[in-house]
Amino acid sequence: MIIGLTGPNCAGKGEVAAILAGLGLPVFSLSDIVREQAAQRGMPPDRENLIAIGQELRRLEGPGVLAERLLPKLPQHAVVDSIRSPFEVQVLAARDDFRLVGVDAPREIRWKRALARGRIGDHVDFATFEEQEKRENQDREDSQQVGNTLAMADFMVYNEGELAELEARVRSILEAWI
User: Which of 92, 100, 122, 170 has a 20 to 30 Å separation from 31 between CA atoms?
Assistant: First the structure.
């Protein structure tokens, strides 16, 4: 089974991926493909650069390019993190055993998580955080469409509580699917 993860910034996709990795599933990220491109270009891997590079790749190679590059590398069972486009879902859904998990949390909680996480570009005020999210929800083929992708989820996980609650929810999803 391939389990895909989608959701807005700092919703907890990485935590869900870590839980699944702890259960023995290898984790791959579509964002890693974009980060590799940033490194090759000598650009810092901040949110703005990664979004711009992702859009460029989608314009040049098609809206599902990130998933197309990853799909041949996937083993029989894996987790694919950072799915942000319905076109990426369509590519991965070519495998009959693909399931999409949406991870979400209230915006203010996610903003506070971003501040605490401290990645490059994460220390922004709340209004900037909201603006960044608007850019991640455009209805263009070359853009991220997080909201549209989240709406395609086979199962939703709301992550506004403690890590133990999140792990219990993830385990219940797996039990339902296996």
Answer: 170
Q: What is the pLDDT of residue 106?
A: 95
Sheet holding 155-158, edge to edge: 27-29, 78-83, 2-6, 98-104, 155-158
pLDDT means over runs of 10, the chain (178 residues): 95 95 95 94 90 92 96 95 95 96 95 84 80 79 86 95 93 85
Question: Any idea which residue has 């980060």 for tokens?
Answer: 35
SS3 category, 19? helix
**Alpha carbon 41 to its chain's center:** 22
On whether the pTM is more than 0.85, the answer is: yes
Q: What angle do CA 68, 170, 111 make, to 5 degrees?
A: 80
| Nearest of 61, 39, 83, 67 to residue 142 by alpha carbon | 61
Sign of the Cα torsion 132, 136, 138, 143 reads positive
Asked whether 146 and 8 are in contact (CB, 8 A), the reply is yes
CA distance 18 to 13: 9
List the domain boundaries for the chain.
2-164
CB 85 within 8 A of CB 32: no
Which of the four CATH numbers 3.40.50.10330, 3.40.50.300, 3.50.50.60, 3.40.50.880 does domain 2-164 have? 3.40.50.300
